[in-house]
Structure formats: structure tokens, C-alpha cells
Specification:
Layout: E1 3-7, E2 14-20, H1 30-41, H2 49-52, E3 58-59, E4 63-64, E5 67-68, E6 73-78, H3 82-89, H4 110-117, H5 123-129, H6 134-148, E7 154-162, E8 165-166, H7 190-205, E9 212-219, H8 235-244, E10 249-254, H9 257-260, E11 272-275, E12 279-282, E13 290-291, E14 294-295, E15 300-306, E16 317-319, E17 326-328, H10 339-362, H11 367-375
Antiparallel strand pairs: 1-2, 2-6, 3-6, 4-5, 7-8, 7-9, 9-15, 10-15, 11-12, 13-14, 16-17
Bound molecules: flavin mononucleotide.
């Protein structure tokens, strides 16, 4: 069982994480973690916050000399912006009236959070509901990703659409995904990239925001991760849950997902073949690598729909939380579009979930034991 607990306010001192359950003996590179953190910060359409932050992990426990100990891995990622917010965010001296938020933003956690926890200042809500938290998930994903890569399991992503601008390529081969690393919007098609950037510029000019669709692929998974024997062991259910937990994600598809509901079975199900060299194999992968809640040996293909960012520079209508009078929603420094960053976060949560089922199948104490069982 691998699990992650995170803590930290968006403008607090640091984002904090504890990853428990990483087996002993896994070589971990700090540079690789920092590289993933930096990928999360990129993407055309991000707000000014990302110009301030230069996210780097500080590991406090669980790793010695670059090797995991099997004990909880505790880490922090300091928020540079805290220096500018100390007056309001200091845990004991912070001024509770500092940048108070009274006008809940439609689409954000503000209103429900304030009612639920009995606040009249939605600053208390937004500091924690903010996607700054995903920094910890990316760090944790990178740690367990380094375990998965010991077994040649590779995870990659790309952006399929931003607003109504979408790539036509379908399916996209895993090998093509590396092209997304050179794109400002993590798009593999240069022509579409230009149109996506134009769409983001247009939305920004209007004080508006955009969402989109990201795709995550995983290559090298063995057959049989997850299980059909109990509902809560089904891998597609677990993956959907972790992807839906990302801020702003409102839909998840496995393989052809919603598209497959429009077609007859003869056009959807991936026929099975066999030869001595490859064993069982398919010529298509509409199922996206999962059948019956288990990996089937094909590339895992997942898609997530991200809604547009809720903080609009041309704010929507809302009401004052206390007086109930009509007002415009709060405006907080914000991204216009964070779909490329969401793709990096999605990679990370997929790595966490796959590690959970991987450890179930191959043991959880040490890398050595896992390799022995893997090679059996
Ligand atoms: C990487 C990333 C960056 C985000 N940046 C912002 C932002 O700058 N402003 C904002 O209002 N929402 C942003 N969001 C989305 C909100 O955090 C999210 O919509 C909000 O927490 C409400 O949760 P829900 O959309 O899942 O219901 C971002 C999401 C992600 C994944």
C-alpha cells in the first residue's frame, strides 16, 4: 500500500508531503523530482505566480544516500511567495483581515467550503483548495515513478484539446508523446499548438479562461494489475478516482470511453490474436489497456476533461457572503489555462495508483524482493 498525505496553504510557508509505502532499496534522483516539478510549472497560460516560484524538493526523511529506506518519505517544497504573504499567512502572527475574500467565485470551493467549515472569509478555503497542492502530488508521483521505471514502466502525457481547439490524431502512439515536451501547451502537433496559444491569448484578452482534455499513456505494464474479483480492486475505478481528485478535472475516460458508447461492439472490442513470438496480442487498443478492471498488457490510455479555470479576470456574478448583496466574484491572481500543467499532475496520480496495484502483485518490502518476483 502506498499512500500520500499532503499539507500546506497556497501562500503558506511550504507544500508538505509524506509518502508511505515506498519499498526499500529504490534509487531516487532529486534532479528527476525537480525536473517533474519544473514541468508542472510550465505551460502557456499560467499566471504570474509561476514566475515567482522555482519549485525544488527538500527531502526530510525516508531516503539516505539516494536510496529509499522503506520508511515514510517526508518532504517540503517551499513557497517563495510566502515572503510576500507572511503578514497574512504566518501561523501565529498572521493578520486575519489580510486579503479577506468575501465574494465566492462560481466554480471554486469558496462557497461550499465557507458554509461547511463555518468561515466568513473564503481565504481560509481557497488557500487549501488551490491546485498549489498538486506540487506535492507531482513530487510523490516522481518518487514512485522512479520505482516503476526500474521495471521499464513509462508514463507520458499530452494535451489533446484546449477550449474548442483539438488535435485530429487518434490514436496517438506512445513514442509520439515525447514531442509534447517541446511544446508550450504540451501538444504534439505544431499547427494545433499555434491555434491553442491563440485561443488562450483570446480568452486572456476577454478576461476569460479555458479548459481542455489531456491524455496519459503508460507503456510496459504487465498483464493483471488490479482485479475483477471485488469492486474496489478494479484498476479503472481506482484510476478514475485519483484522476477525478485533481482540481478542475470533471471527466475521465479509459480508452475510447464515451466514443465507444456510440458504436456497435464489433467496432469497439479489440480482437485477440496469438503467435509464438508475441503471445497473445491485439491489433487495436480501443479498451485503453484495461479489461475487467485489470491491465491486459496493452498501453494504458486515459483521458481527463478539465473545466475552465474558475477565477475570471472579468468576474462572474455572485453575492457578498455576509450581506448577501449582489456583487462580482473575487479576483485572485490566476492562470488563464492550466491544462498543460494538469497533464503533468495526471501523470503523477496515475503513477501513484499504478504503484499501489503494482506493490499488491510484486511485494512491498524491498526492490530486491520485487525484482525477484517480477522475474519469476
Ligand atoms: C495545475 C492547476 C492549476 C490551477 N490553477 C488555477 C488558478 O490559477 N485559478 C483557479 O481559479 N483555479 C485553478 N485551478 C483549478 C481549481 O483549483 C479548481 O477548479 C478548484 O479547486 C475547484 O475544484 P473543482 O474544479 O475540482 O471542483 C487549477 C487546477 C490545476 C490542476
Amino acid at each position: 500500500m502506498v499512500r500520500l498525505l499532503t499539507a500546506g496553504e497556497s501562500h503558506g510557508q511550504a507544500v508538505v508531503g509524506v509518502v508511505e509505502g515506498v519499498p526499500a532499496g529504490v534509487p531516487i534522483s532529486k534532479e528527476v523530482i525537480d525536473q517533474h516539478l519544473s514541468r508542472r510549472q510550465m505551460g502557456y497560460g499560467r499566471g504570474d505566480r509561476m514566475k515567482i516560484e522555482k519549485d525544488k524538493i527538500q527531502v526530510l526523511s525516508g531516503i539516505r544516500g539516494g536510496i529509499t529506506l522503506g520508511s515514510p518519505i517526508a518532504f517540503t517544497i517551499p513557497n517563495k511567495d510566502y515572503e510576500n504573504w507572511k503578514q497574512g499567512m504566518d501561523p501565529f502572527e498572521g493578520d486575519l483581515d489580510y486579503k479577506k475574500v468575501s465574494h465566492p467565485r462560481p466554480g471554486h470551493a469558496d462557497l461550499a467550503g465557507a458554509i461547511k467549515y463555518g468561515f466568513d472569509d473564503m481565504r481560509h478555503v481557497l488557500e487549501r483548495s488551490s491546485a498549489r497542492e498538486t506540487t506535492a502530488r507531482v513530487a510523490a508521483g516522481s518518487i514512485v515513478g522512479q520505482l516503476l521505471s526500474q521495471f521499464n514502466i513509462e508514463v507520458a502525457s499530452h494535451v489533446r484539446s484546449i477550449g474548442n481547439v483539438a488535435i485530429e490524431n487518434n490514436p496517438v502512439a506512445f513514442e509520439q508523446l515525447k514531442d509534447s515536451e517541446n511544446s508550450l501547451v504540451r501538444c504534439i502537433c505544431e499547427k494545433t499548438e499555434r491555434l491553442m496559444i491563440k485561443a488562450i491569448d483570446g480568452a486572456k484578452l476577454e478576461g476569460d479562461t479555458l479548459g481542455g482534455v489531456v491524455e496519459i499513456q503508460v507503456k510496459g505494464l504487465p498483464v493483471g494489475l488490479g482485479s475483477y474479483v471485488q469492486w474496489d480492486r478494479k484498476l479503472d475505478g481506482k484510476l478514475a478516482g485519483s484522476l477525478m481528485s485533481i482540481q478542475g478535472i470533471k471527466g475521465v475516460e479509459v480508452g475510447d470511453g464515451f466514443e465507444s458508447a456510440l458504436k456497435p461492439g464489433s467496432h469497439v472490442h479489440d480482437e485477440i490474436f496469438y503467435n509464438d513470438a508475441d503471445g497473445f496480442y491485439r491489433k487495436t487498443n480501443h479498451a485503453g489497456g484495461i479489461e475487467g478492471g485489470m491491465t491486459n498488457g496493452e498501453t494504458l490510455v486515459l483521458r481527463c476533461a478539465m473545466k475552465p479555470i474558475p477565477t475570471l479576470m472579468k468576474p462572474l456574478n455572485t453575492v457578498n457572503f455576509v450581506s448577501k448583496e449582489a456583487h462580482q466574484a473575487a479576483v485572485e491572481r490566476s492562470d488563464t489555462c492550466a491544462v498543460p500543467a494538469a497533464a503533468v499532475v495526471a501523470e503523477a496520480v496515475v503513477k501513484m495508483t499504478l504503484t499501489e496495484v503494482f506493490l499488491e502483485s510484486f511485494g512491498a518490502d524491498s526492490l530486491k524482493e520485487m525484482k525477484r518476483r517480477w522475474n519469476e
